[in-house]
Write the structure tokens for this entry.
Amino acid sequence: MTYCRSLASILLALLFLSACGGPGGVIDVQAAVDRGGTVRFPAGTYVLTQTVVVRHSNTIIQGAGPDTVFIFRPVPPQVPCINDRAFTTACEAANQNPRQIASSIAIGDGSFTATNNVDDLRSGEWVIITEKDLVPREVVIIDWVQVASVSGNTVLVRSPFRTAFPNTHPWVEGTSGLGFLLVPQVVEGVQFRDLTIVVPDCGFDTPGIAVAVAKDTVIDNVEVQDPDGQPLYSYPSKGLTVTHSRGIGAKVLNEFAATVDLTVSDNTFSSNEAGLGLDFGTGFFAVVGNKVPSSSNVAMYFLDGVHDGAVSTNSLQFVNSTASAIGVLARGTQRVTIANNYLAGGEGPATIGISIGTAYGGLDQPIISSGNIVTPNWFGPLWTMDYDPTNQP
């Protein structure tokens, strides 16, 4: 039976703050979330001074609508996963270094071989396979697989690999190369529904909701106002669905990084930078029916290994720029369809509606653009060029 609890009596005594720092209601909120199940927050203002960490699967954080407001005012200095984001799924597993995989993996393979013993892996556990590039020290290819059995250094997986890992990047522990992370206890089925999160300017890059090393998370009818960080953020996760929500940023965009099986539909994203970005190997995704009413330089981007997805029926309004705006920027994507979107126009002397090609900048190894489709789309009159003449889909 789903556990439900009203927090009205617990949280009436929350203090309201006028500046960053000071006491708040995080202890009560965290204690309620730690019980798991459905946790209901009535309309009201809840002040948080530390990150609320969702550690239990199938926890539902249920507000009463836009009048359920969480204000995040952390006490500096920022400490990762302690006070550097308002809400997060348990993120300890993201901080471990990958363990090296000995050889490349092809689509359809049923196993991988590690360089060292893997006797600690158990049937049914999930592992995250990543290949990192040396220069950004970031993921460029990623997927999740489930352990079937282990024999020596070889791990058999329950379903064949759907992503290829070429193992072309040099192995530098924690920095580059092909490896895997064990997720010993996956947090899955978490939901955030019907609430507002406000993150005042308390430090750069402070997400409102961070989905970290989690599976099958839902964010629905949530508004996040975050002038100094990602309103909505994921890394590295699987099965994230974001619907009917609003990510309102300023200095940073809404970013879904190193995330597979991602659905982003019927949302509104805005920022003084790009409104929405997918990067670092995000794959098997749908970005459908979203609106970007306000953005600068780029409305949406898809960078560094994003693959196997659809970008369709989105509405991108006028893109401001101090140079020349781009509506959709794609670099190093594979098998992505960008079609049936409306791009209103952009500011500058040489604006481009859609630009796509190979990723070179900031990488040790270029990521080839291949197998993409970029037509048809609809363009307003305020583009210098609808499509970049150098496009390489």
